[in-house]
Amino acid sequence: MIPVLTKEEASRLDEDTIESGYLSKQELMDNAGKAIAQFFCEKIDDPFNQKVVVVCGKGNNGGDGVISHSYLKRYNIVSKIVFTEKKHTHSRLIKKYKILKSDCFIYSDKIQFDKYDWIIDGIFGIGLSRDLDNQYQEIFNNINKNKNILSIDISSGLFVNNAYSKYFVNSKYVLTFGYPKLSHYLIPHNNLIIPDIGFKKNIKTKIQLICKIDILNILKDFVLKSSTHKYSKGYTSISAGSNKYPGAAILSCLAAYKSGSSYVNLCFEGDKEIRDNIKIQYPDIVLNQDYTIGDFCLFGPGYSFGEDDEEIWSRLTGYKSIVCDAAILGKAEDINCFPDNSILTPHVGEYNKLFNTEDSLALSSFRKIQNYLNNRIVILKSFNTFIMTKDMIYIMDKGPSLLATAGTGDVLSGILVSLLSQGYSRLDASILGTYLHAEAANYYMSNISKYGMTASDLISCIPFALNELRKNSVN
Length: 475
Known about the structure:
There is one protein chain. This protein is an alpha/beta fold and 475 residues long. Helix 2 crosses helix 3 and helix 7 runs parallel beside helix 15. It has 15 helices and 18 strands.
């Protein structure tokens, strides 16, 4: 897994690298500036016919921008610098790198950013901790009129530890150094580049980005023949559905089968007539109203609570592990309604209600919630997925926007309970399940269409996504 840094950890990494003598501050800045210029030359179309303006604040981020301008000029790219402040603190760098005065300007409303092909944003770095004044709001508004923006380390205006910035630069690319920062996953980023500029390796953090190799290490071997039967491995129990939402139960059951369950028992919460229709249309699903069957159970997809809903809470005990999703999350007063062996899968609205917070995508919220988890696992479903235990936060960033489709959450919960029934631990099931869910959507997007995916389409892609993973499995 890749360490993901908070604001404090990123600052400490800089300090530790410099204080250890591993690299000096000047060497780090030079490496950063060179990496920016090299990326531009290597990855931007027709780079030597592009006009660039580097917008520099007065901090270290601006210093990186000044140095990147110097290297761009060495590589024969037309580049200018605009400083956001008259007292920009970069005079020594300008002298050291022999930057021409004619290349440097101070920002005013007469600066025409639209005459440049690319803007390199070096205004604010990871240290920003204040709201922006009117001057910087104006600067950002003018910069954002250009669609080709490359930001240094972080899109200026964003805070590293939370997603609640009103004004920020809309970057096309973000180049961060050494390791990603938490903010890169708190708002959508499509093009995050992480060049190595010489930081010390093997740092430890409590936030980790899930990589494909992690999935391959978790994934169990496929065994063609073994002494098992449908009841001994992959037996899944699902309590779901209602007269109003029978489809949610069906989606969860089919997803469980497609991800490896050998037997799926559905305890359907609706009327007998609808149960009978499910039996006819989906003969693979076994309908049995006994809530005590099996060691692993999924509760909640498609529930429609009525007067007797308090009975539901008594059903959550007695299992080795359970997955709780959808309506049952919205009905709970707090997390203590769920036993310690639970995996909870809220979307942002359910998460905010369950944990009484409005700052769902913020480090302070994550840390507060971790204090209440004990052995529970929370999978927060957003444009990225955050898997929280009491000790760690894991980020899964592979899911496309196609997953913002009705019913795809029911598919995920079916995958999770299926993996539990196949012997995966709750943490491994959470990591593998969210990744497989995303890869099924990516398979659909790559092989079928970038539009129009339904939850049923997603289910049909699960075996193909699994096969693609198994091709590279190291187990």
